[in-house]
Design a protein that fits this description.
The complex is a heterodimer.
Chain A (H helix, E strand, L loop, with lengths): L37 H4 L15 H4 L3 E3 L7 H13 L4 E5 L2 H5 L22 H7 L9 E5 L4 H15 L8 E3 L3 H8 L6 H18 L3 E2 L1 E4 L1 H5 L4 H21 L4 H4 L3 E7 L3 H22 L5 H4 L2 E6 L11 H16 L3 E3 L12 H16 L14 H24 L2 H6 L2 H19 L29 H15 L2 H16 L6 H9 L4 H12 L9
Parallel strand pairs in A: 1-9, 2-3, 3-4, 4-5, 6-7, 7-8, 8-9
Chain B lengths: L1 H6 L6 E5 L8 H12 L3 E4 L6 H11 L3 E6 L4 H14 L6 E6 L3 H10 L3 E3 L5 H12 L1
Parallel strand pairs in B: 1-2, 1-3, 3-4, 4-5
The chains are: A alpha/beta, B alpha/beta.
Chain lengths: ~550, ~140
């Protein structure tokens, strides 16, 4: 079938606008005004913060404009960062390649085919020095999408700052550092659940003291969502994971008034507009209540639910890719109405490739249009008080609590993950979503409805990864091995091993020392694996 | 899909679903595994982070009719090529290999040249995946 055929056999089924949202919440055509209790709505900047954590919203501070990027070598990523900063991006977002995420050096046989593919290869401090060359780390907030090796990459960031002469106390940014959702939805786990939780608590407690303006964790629902969860389920799993980290931090002697101020969150925003806005408002309210009522945190900052958002990867589709530009705009507006502190916009071609400069710039421009042209950020929570939104927020809260109660009934997230229970639930939800998409019940314009058969992906530009990336990474890696002091590396790794074996010790200072000695990510991970073992993935279907 | 469940077009077939390499996005592989099982196949799912040699070894040990590989990291050409060579080294080159994930259209032909029987894209309906597999394995 030719795409220019004037009468292409597009999907014939009529799309249906169902009476329930994608989270399964009934949506009345008109809401009874008396269903909404003004006392549940509250004021922006006041407990339980349904309407936002600040009284002046984006007038006080605009969200951070980021763009997920990183590919190939540190040199290429450094250039892309400089380009994006010139376009008005206000924070960096670093994507790491799979070997770095999984703790393998580029020389490992499993690493070879993946070097530089989905992010930048950051195998040791010298690569980080290149990545941040001529970027002032005291002024730029950097977000790292890293989990299994988050503590190591954070240590490497501190070492780079040390090298650049930037005081650690000035560093701002975020490491994702959320291992729980890796076990259930994304797979870059390394160690078993319990030592991983310890490592995360170590990094958070250390960061609270050493980099007080840095977010040492970004508890992320995002991958759970892409795996098939609804908006309500995404929030429920994320809050449950967040509470598990709070418990671990308390076990390690943390003070909730202190560490809770630096816990941050991260979500996908998909296309069901009001589900998304209600999800953020309900999540903010629930978290504030948990912190205050369950953990006795009285400082409002320790009750704040601060979150970043990225447009849903799986909400973007390859057929008719330019439609994704519109999806990203709608999703970004939902994030703004929801009160996000940081927004990454997807580039329209992310459904099938690493963004080109053209598509990355358009994604940044989308945020700038919403921020500076639309005016929707002038007032805090502009839809607050809407009969429908307030009722939907209440229903969303109930839906979230229902899932959290099911996890509690199972015994909590840790055993639920160790048994593979959450993984199986997600696989089944993913299958349901796929079948609803196949049948056309989940309407995706240009894919399962209004689609022209045989249409080819037509984009202006295809991203091409330089085929010499792996070779160049390997050559640089070898040079570091040849020039560093092996005795310094061995000594730093030996101290790390001793610290890892002792639960009461914090491993972070030892990781920073290893990074300074140019120990590699693979060496540090191997050292910790020796003490802690590896996660045994429960494969039940 | 209910039709597929009743018809069980893959009854009697043994199919390995594998995740070669380091890509951890396993939801697509799991969805396909559940679907193939509903269609009557016996499914062996490898779990994450398997090397091509490990996958080929399991395929041989389990005597499967087909191997489905899911890859989203962009390393499909290297990893799929390695799985096929390993299968051939085990004299199991007749085992059909299918690939799914984020596979750009321009790479489909290259994968077929390597010996891949079919490439399934993410937007392809599951009943079409099943019917095509059934036809290939008939």
């Amino acid at each position: 079938m030719n795409a220019r055929d004037p009468n292409p056999p597009a999907e014939l089924a009529e799309p249906v606008l169902g009476p329930v949202s994608r989270s399964g919440i009934p949506v009345p055509t008109a809401v009874d005004a008396s269903a909404v209790k003004p006392e549940n709505i509250g004021k922006p900047g006041e407990y339980p913060f349904t309407r936002g954590i600040f009284p002046d919203g984006y007038q006080g501070r605009l969200w951070t404009i980021r763009q997920y990027s990183g590919f190939g070598t540190a040199e290429e990523s450094n250039e892309r960062y400089k380009f994006l900063l010139q376009q008005g991006q206000t924070g960096l977002s670093v994507a790491l390649d799979l070997p770095t995420q999984c703790g393998f050096d580029p020389t490992h046989p499993m690493a070879r085919p993946e070097i530089g593919k989905v992010g930048v290869s950051l195998s040791n401090l010298s690569e980080a020095e290149i990545l941040f060359k001529d970027l002032d780390l005291s002024k730029i907030s950097t977000s790292f999408t890293i989990n299994g090796t988050a503590a190591i990459i954070y240590a490497m960031y501190l070492a780079v700052a040390d090298k650049q002469g930037v005081p650690r106390s000035k560093l701002t940014g975020t490491i994702q550092n959320d291992i729980l959702k890796e076990y259930v939805a994304r797979g870059t786990w390394i160690f078993p659940v319990r030592p991983s939780m310890r490592l995360i608590a170590d990094s958070i407690l250390y960061s609270n003291d050493v980099t007080p303006r840095f977010n040492p964790i970004s508890i992320a629902g995002a991958h759970v969502r892409d795996a098939g969860a609804t908006a309500a389920e995404e929030m429920a799993y994320t809050l449950a994971n967040g509470l598990a980290y709070v418990e671990e931090l308390k076990r390690r002697g943390g003070d909730v008034e202190k560490f809770a101020k630096r816990l941050s969150f991260f979500f996908y925003v998909h296309m069901d507009f009001f589900d998304e806005i209600a999800k953020f408002r309900a999540g903010r309210r629930l978290w504030a209540r948990f912190m205050k009522e369950r953990y006795g945190a009285n400082d409002p900052k320790a009750q704040h639910f601060r979150f970043g958002v990225v447009c849903g990867g799986s909400s973007l589709v390859a057929p008719q890719p330019y439609n994704n530009v519109v999806r990203v705009a709608v999703e970004t507006m939902a994030a703004v109405f929801g009160g996000a502190q940081s927004i990454f916009t997807c580039a329209f071609d992310e459904a099938f490739q690493i963004p080109t400069e053209f598509s990355a710039e358009l994604a940044v421009r989308t945020q700038q249009m919403i921020a500076f042209e639309s005016g929707i950020g002038r007032t805090v929570d502009p839809l607050g008080g809407s009969y429908f939104l307030e009722q939907h927020t209440d229903r969303m809260e109930e839906a979230i609590l229902k899932v959290m109660n099911e996890i509690d009934a199972y015994g909590g997230v840790t055993p639920a993950i160790e048994d593979g229970w959450i993984q199986l639930r997600l696989a089944e939800r993913g299958l349901e979503r796929k079948l609803d998409t196949d049948s056309g019940k989940n309407v995706i314009v240009g894919q399962n409805h209004f689609r022209k058969e045989g249409e080819q992906i037509g984009v202006r530009e295809i991203f091409k990864l330089d085929p010499t990336v792996a070779q160049r990474a390997l050559e640089k890696f070898q040079r570091v091995l040849d020039t560093r002091s092996q005795s310094a590396v061995d000594a730093s790794l030996a101290k790390l091993a001793t610290a890892a074996a002792k639960d009461s010790e914090n491993v972070m200072p030892y990781l920073v020392d290893c990074c300074h000695a140019y120990a590699t990510v693979g060496e540090m991970v191997a050292c910790l694996k020796k003490e802690w073992g590896e996660f045994k993935e429960p494969v039940n279907l | 899909m209910n039709d597929v469940k009743e018809a069980r077009p893959l009854a009697g077939k043994r199919i390995l679903v594998g995740k070669p390499g380091l890509d951890g996005h396993d939801i697509g592989a799991k969805i396909v595994a559940l679907t193939l099982r509903d269609a009557g196949a016996e499914v062996i799912y490898t779990g994450l982070r398997r090397s091509p040699a490990q996958i080929a070894q399991v395929a041989v040990d389990e005597g499967v009719d087909a191997v489905g590989l899911s890859i989203l990291s962009g390393s499909h050409k290297e990893l799929v090529g390695d799985v096929i060579s390993e299968l051939r080294a085990h004299k199991a080159g007749d085992v059909k290999v299918f690939v799914g994930g984020t596979i750009p259209g321009e790479d489909h032909a290259a994968l077929r040249e390597l010996g891949v029987a079919a490439v399934f894209t993410a937007d392809m309906p599951l009943d079409r995946v099943v019917s095509q597999l059934a036809a290939e394995l008939a």
